[in-house]
Amino acid sequence: MTLRTSVEITPTGAALGAELRGVDLRTLDRSQFDAVHRAWLAHGVLLFRDQFLADAALVAFSRWFGDLDQAPIQESGRRCVDGYPEIYVVSNVVENGVAIGSLGAGEAVWHTDMSYLPDPPKASVLMAREVPATGGDTSFCTMYGAWDALPAALRARVERLRVKHDGTYNSGGFVRAGVTPSDDPRTAPGTLHPLVCVHPETGRRHLYLGRRRNAWLEGLPLAESDALLDEIWAIATADSLSWRHHWRVGDVVMWDNRCVMHRRDAFDPATRRVMHRTQIKGETRPSPT
Ligand code: OGA
Ligand code: MN
Fold it and tell me: Does the C-beta of 139 come closer than 6 Å to ligand 1?
């Protein structure tokens, strides 16, 4: 019989996030998975250090949580990793004149992954292969905390609205493949989702914001929508609701893509940063009830 240590959970001390120790993600068993799953729902973002998952192991770990999406098309127009259609590459590295991944070396603004689609993934799992010594930190913010932080009058005003999640630009500001850019959020490609959702697994209320650029509150004149969104975004992205992660090679970070947003700092483009990502299919659409 193999003796396994129990999973050790250390909250970050910030508004969300926890580091999990005592688990090798390559040899997870059912009881460890249950502990990881509970911690993920409770803390929103999990950090596992020193995992060094190869692509097959990253896919196998992610599969514990459900079916995986096929990776989106990279900014280069390609799908990237041979033999692993589920793996998406986030990288500034250019090989033979072609970027091996997406998002470059600039800032990636606050966002939810793929929320411009009707059925966004419920989770993303990011594995650090190469990271710069400084810069390129990733921050996360809690959308439960954002809802809780809205003043009562603002809550009442926006509670039943839907928000347009724009599909024109990715978080690095790049226009998505096949899209003709338009800056009218009412007609741009994208999806309307409820602004306030109930999490299907925790039952807790949270905001569902997606991206600020080209967002629109359905039915409102643009200026009014912009003013309300600016007010909500300022509250939702306050430092007090976020946690910043400085990467080490071998780190695996997974987040609940329903109730957590993330952003990435810029870094020196002369340095290399290579991350491999999977995304786990959502089982339910973002829903107000
Ligand atoms: C992502 C993403 C940011 C980062 O993988 O969805 O936004 O820090 N990554 O690489
Ligand atoms: Mn992202």
Answer: no
The Å distance, Cα 44 to ligand 1 centre, comes to 15
Reply yes or no on whether the pLDDT at 251 is more than 90: yes
Q: Which residue's CA is the nearest one to ligand 1's atom 3? A: 264
Contact present, 103 and 255 (Cβ < 8 Å): no
Domain residue spans in the chain? 8-142+243-280, 149-236
CATH superfamily of 8-142+243-280: Clavaminate synthase-like (3.60.130.10)
How far does residue 140's CA lie from ligand 1's centre (Å)?
Answer: 10
Share of the chain above pLDDT 90, in %: 88
- Atom number of ligand 1 nearest to Cα 136: 8
pLDDT > 80? residue 99: yes
Least distant ligand from the CA of 126? 1
pTM for this one? 0.96
Closest CA relative to residue 112, chosen from 22, 239, 197: 197
Asked if residue 20 lies in contact with residue 253, where contact means CB atoms within 8 angstroms, the answer is no
Q: Distance (Å, rounded) from C-alpha 260 to C-alpha 113? A: 10
What's the mean pLDDT in 1-9? 73
